[in-house]
Amino acid sequence: MTTVTVWNEYRHEREDDAAREVYPDGIHATIAESLDERGFDVRTATLDDPEHGLTPDVLDDTDVLTWWGHEAHEEVSDEVVKRVHERVLSGMGLLVLHSGHFSKIFKRLMGTSCGLKWRESGETERIWTVEPGHPIAEGIGECIEVPETEMYGERFDVPAPDTLVFTSWFEGGEVFRSGCCYRRGSGRIFYFRPGHETYPIYHHPEIQTVVANAVSWATPVET
User: Fold this and answer.
1) N or C, which terminus of the chain has less Cβ within 10 Å?
2) Residue 193 has pLDDT above 60, yes or no
3) Cα(139)–Cα(137) distance, rounded to whole angstroms?
């Protein structure tokens, strides 16, 4: 059974009423519940846990780490980032979600600024499946429609993905590479754009399916 550690800053949901209403137990709890229902062995960890909940023992027992952060990227310990980086290179999968694009760990793995354009205006997003044969797209149709979300737009300053699974379109006309696969060392990495602290995106069944598919894809393969 794949062991997943769901990591979350867990600040917005404690400090902001709108975020708390959508995710009363935290974004991590919603993601973890969805993965648990799909048969994964799941634990959660948050920024304010000792060592951010990512001790050497926890990481050694983690097949795939999911990462959600937004307002406190700089509070993540460089020592923990180094620890996660080493585990990814040695084979642990990493799923970086939404504003996790600006996390220390993702920027370290990409070697770029990971900057992008953004606008928070509650627009519709269509997440187009551009590689329907990829395992992360299993069970997903031509596109996923999210009725209200934050816009992320190009240019997204990341290396060209090994495989681009999804591309997003927004009402303002912007497009974005929203489902990017990478390999670093022996580890598989997937960046998935959808998600926000005040929109119920992680409750969306198809978004949950993509997250679960990505966890399966990123799980280390025994050789």
Assistant:
1) C
2) yes
3) 6
Pairwise CA distance, residues 8 & 96, whole Å = 11
Kindly report the pTM of this predicted structure: 0.96
Kindly give the pairing relationship between strand 41-46 and strand 3-8.
parallel
Taking the C-alpha atoms of residue 9 and residue 191, their distance in angstroms, rounded to an integer, is: 17
d(CA 66, CA 173): 29
Distance CA 155, CA 138 (A): 27
What is the total residue count of the chain? 223
| Alpha-carbon span 74 to 104, nearest angstrom | 7
Query: Sign of torsion, CA 53 113 164 223?
Result: negative
Over the stretch 21-34, which tens digit does the pLDDT of each residue have? 999 999 999 999 99
